[in-house]
Amino acid sequence: MRRWNDKLRPMELYEVDKQAHKMIIAWLLFLLNSRDMPLERRLALGRDIVEGGLFDYFYRLVITDIKPPVYYRIKQNPEDFRTLSRWALGEMELAVRPLDEEMWARLHAWVERSCSPERETSLADGILRAAHTFASSWEFALIKPLNAFDPEISAIDASFRDILSGLSGKVMGVSELLEEREHSALRSFADLCGRLRFQIRWSQTPRIPETSVLGHMFMVACYAYFFSITQKVCAARAQNNFFAGLLHDLPEALTRDIISPVKKSVKGISSLIRQYEEEEMRERVLEPLRREGYAAIADRLVYFLGLDASSEYCEIVRIDGASKEVESFEIMQAAYNEDDFDPKDGRLLKICDTLAAFMEAYSAVRNGQSPAVLQEALWKKRQQSRDVSIGNIHLGALLEDFD
Fold first, then answer.
1. Strand, coil or helix: what is 221?
2. Which of 110, 284, 286, 346 could disulfide-pair with 314, CB 3.0 to 4.6 Å?
3. Residues 143 and 248 in one domain
4. Which pTM does this prediction carry?
5. Any idea what the CATH number is for the domain that residue 264 is in?
6. Residue 378: which domain range?
7. CA distance to 73, 81, 393, per residue, from 135 (Å)
8. Mean pLDDT per segment of 10 residues, for the chain of length 403 residues?
9. What is the sign of the dihedral through the CA atoms of 298, 172, 112 and 234?
10. How many domains does the chain have?
11. In a domain? residue 208
């Protein structure tokens, strides 16, 4: 789904990239605004942010053909907006309801609440609105110089500034995001994540649509959350899996996307690349965040990226403030599936990464791009996943459904 498709653009801008950037910003704001909350309240806020972001994305996918000015006109009339939203809910039901009845009920409640003109704005609403506006304004900065002739540009620019300025006193962290990147480690980190939309995956292989590292991260996060829901994991684990998926390729902003054949071509090169990624992350991301008082963000990045473990793809929990690796998904499920352990899956994340890569190749082939490298990739993913299962998910059977 393309964005800003009525404006002159230096590159194609896609909704999935914007959603990824939005949810990374939402994660930053979530950490800053929940640091003094008790665990139960923090997890409730986290779920509202994760699912609020997902539900909004589902909704946008359904109403994609309605141009924003028309959509906002519809939204001004409560009855028209309710009619549109209930139609959209019906379109989403077949995709969402089979996943989990409780999640479907929350989506239904989210749509109904969105239609209510009297609804109160929650902290999660404010965080998501700030993240949405920042991510959109970041994209807008790319196209603004090319559209000086467009009479809408100044109004759009003012709208973004007004919304973010209005939220800066209500949502902690927004004012720091508005600072110049040279003076704010938080803004610099947000910009670094945004630039991952410039890195195209499968860069030597023509594909329609192309996918960026940023968009890939969002899809892995979505799959990780959906799979977590089907496994009936605790709230902390589901959220950790989402955010770990959302950030799992972040080091590629510093080292670029190094394809698997290169990593596997020379003995020891994979560990060398990981060592280099860790050094770059610590020097260019973690230390600047710590120096400016964002140690909590740096610590969560270390945890999600597996920098304090053998790999980002291992099961890990927190016990007495220290990270501990867990031998398997089964042990995690049996002994550590509780919020107090702050659990994060690794093998499940790897399965989601494989699934996302498969879907990128599959979509390109379905859209008429069928070079040998994509056909080979599909075959290899199927062969490698034939006997891969985790809990109630069998990856091989899932991939076979895509013929």
1. helix
2. 346
3. no
4. 0.92
5. 1.10.3210
6. 213-400
7. 22, 25, 33
8. 86 92 98 96 98 94 80 85 90 92 94 80 95 96 93 93 93 91 88 94 81 95 97 97 96 69 59 80 94 96 92 92 94 96 96 94 85 88 91 91 82
9. positive
10. 2
11. no
